[in-house]
Write a structure and sequence with these properties.
Blueprint lengths: L17 H25 L5 H10 L1 H25 L1 H11 L1 H10 L2 H28 L3 H14 L1 H25 L4 E4 L15 H15 L2 H4 L8 E5 L6 H12 L3 E4 L11 H20 L2 E5 L40 H13 L4 H7 L13 H10 L7 H9 L12 E7 L17 E4 L5 H12 L8 H9 L6 H17 L7 H13 L9 H21 L4 E6 L8 E6 L9 H21 L9 H16 L10 H7 L22 H22 L1 H14 L1 E3 H9 L14 H20 L40 E3 L1
Parallel strand pairs: 2-5, 2-6, 3-4, 4-5
Antiparallel strand pairs: 1-3, 7-8, 7-9, 8-10
Length: about 800
Amino acid sequence: MTEIQVDTPRPTRKRLSFWDRVKFLLLFVAAWFAIVWASMANDPILPFGDAVRLQLRDAKGIVLLVLVGLELVRQLHFLISEHAPGYHRLWAEGIFGGFERSTHRKFSDWTRYRILRVFKWLLVIAVLALILGQVLKTSPFTALFQLPALIWSAAPLFLQVIFVLFVAVAQFGAIFWFLSRGGVEVYFPDDVKTRFTDVWGQDHVLERVKENIVYLENPEAIEAKGGYVPGGILLWGPPGTGKTLMAEAVAGETGKPYVFVDPGAFINMFFGVGVLKVKGLFRKLRKLALRYGGVIVFFDEADSLGNRGALAQGGGGFPRGMTPAPFQAAGCNGFSYLSNDSRWMLTQNAAAAAPSATDKAQVGFPGMGGGGGGMGTLEALLTELSGLKKPRGFVNRHVRRVLGMRPKPPPKYRILVMMATNLPEALDEALLRPGRIDRIYKVGYPTKAGRVRTYDGYLDKVKHELTPEQIDKLATITPYATGATIKDMVNEALITAIRDGRDAITWRDIIRAKQLKELGPAENVEYIERERHAVAVHEACHAVVAYRTRHHMEIDIATIEKGSGYLGMVASIPPEDQFTSWRSHYESDICVALASLAGERMFFEGDSSSGVSGDLESATSVATNMEGVWGMGSTVSSYAASSRIGSGTPGGAPPNAEKNDMSVRRALADRIEDNLGVLLKRTAEILEENRRQVLALAHALESHKTLTGEDVVAVLEGRPGPLVDGTVYADSGFLTELEDYHRAALAAHRTHAKPEMTMPGLVDFEPVPNDEVWRGPAPVNSHNGIAPSGTDGES
């Protein structure tokens, strides 16, 4: 049962503060000495003692002394009431009880406070009149009427002082005003032409954002039922996914003013300028909201708002409604062949070895909370987003108070705050709390249907020859394409077509644009023959193992053209959107990674290059997490949790175990090494079974340097592809020539000489027309039922 607390009357009077106890005494004493000073000023030869005795006989002085005495009696009365409950009860309930009850019935607390304030001002004016009467040698009443004339006569002196103060303050004010300009752009309703129909591939987020528009235009729909209108939206996700475009569409659809806040608007040289910018921004927003019935303010790159986020505060995880965005493929270097989950896992491991949050906070990032934004700027923004709003207008705020009237409450400002960031963990948690940012939406990579819609939208703006089937294929082979990357790819394809003297985009143009954007321009270098063959074999091993062990992945591209950070690359992509990964997927990742080591040992008689180092690092990281974190090995407990808690390493020997008592559980590192050894052996068997396909694909890579995924499959299956004729590799005689060439390259590798045999050539091949590109079934698994996800490559 909950106990109800009832307010009971205090047994004694509430104690006064020291200032409330002495302020009227100080006023009366100061006034009495003021009239003494006035007497001495009027008669310069009058000594101080005589002036005091004179005022003790004068009516004005006697009045002030009587007031001092009455104030002393009043304060003595209060003092006794603060310590004696019976005395306080006698006066509060007996003598003044009826008067207090009658005044409470007739006047509200607000009115009683105003009446008391009027009496205090009248008392101060009366004391001032006594002093002026003594100074002017006239009656106090007449002295009050002479006061304006005295003020007017002293006006020149006051104006000079005010002017000097104004100039001094204006210098600083002008500097701060000038520094607080810029960074904020206002677009009025007719200036924004973007609509929701211009936002493609983010329909699920768009529907949620439309709800906020309904509440912005018709707030009574929720306020009449006791709710409140959500006033803040955070859009977060990878760059280029349409966050800024969505905010512009909201402004365009509502017909409200759109205020764009530049990311660097609050980064200033001097402390305090950022606070002025925040105050000025919201003052402008309130004016626009009243004039147009609402306003939309958009903070782009909101992570620039400060360094008080999870990173700087030492917090872990991500704020509410947030999870790590999918990690973009980072190229080769023994890394890009992994699935998206594997890449994200490796990134987290790398982040763990980065400088700590404390170190980052000490260094300081430019922003509102520390480094460059200035003290108090972020706090000012937080206050403006959810702080109390003042009544508007000078008359409303001041004149009505003087007249004892309540100021009118401030209006409801319809301000929709929208923010966008691709680094949500850097935002202050106080900024993201409900009431400031009410809704958090992830604007992630578009789904396949969204990518198809986005490709259709941008291709409709240019002339092209792509069929709906090819656009669907294009959306499949660009799984992490954003609206910005799709727009850029279509534009690059158009430039390629114009460079070739055409005005329509073809399939070949879009594929060349894709390769250029993903891999960058190839370096203008040529491998020597034996090194070119070694790189081709290395990449062919990756591709063959990926083709033979992956059910749900397709090879996207294979190349041996040297880029800025790789010698060659083989990348794989999922043919549809996938959200789960399994043990078989990760085992295939490891097999694809180990294919370079197994293949080099097999084709170069036990020799291997340093190019496999990145592959081994990735394979070991995945195997470690499988065994100690993901529950995909013989250990059930989590190595990550055990390390964090300090309970020991899962799979290790107990602390009190004998040295030879390791049969209970083998060490984690031993099990990881055993698993890698088993998968390496499995990979070597796959390559041994597909030796001729490896040499065939290596030859195709040496001949063409870069192959699309469909051409890789055509070579491995010995049939025509879109750009490469794979039927020649079904000829056993030609494969025998490839074996002979490999032996010659191997001999040259041992002696560091030029191969004695030239590489076999190819017959001319007419590419398959665009509308006849083969889109066969997924590769058939030929070994151990492994089906991973990811892309593969080599440094």
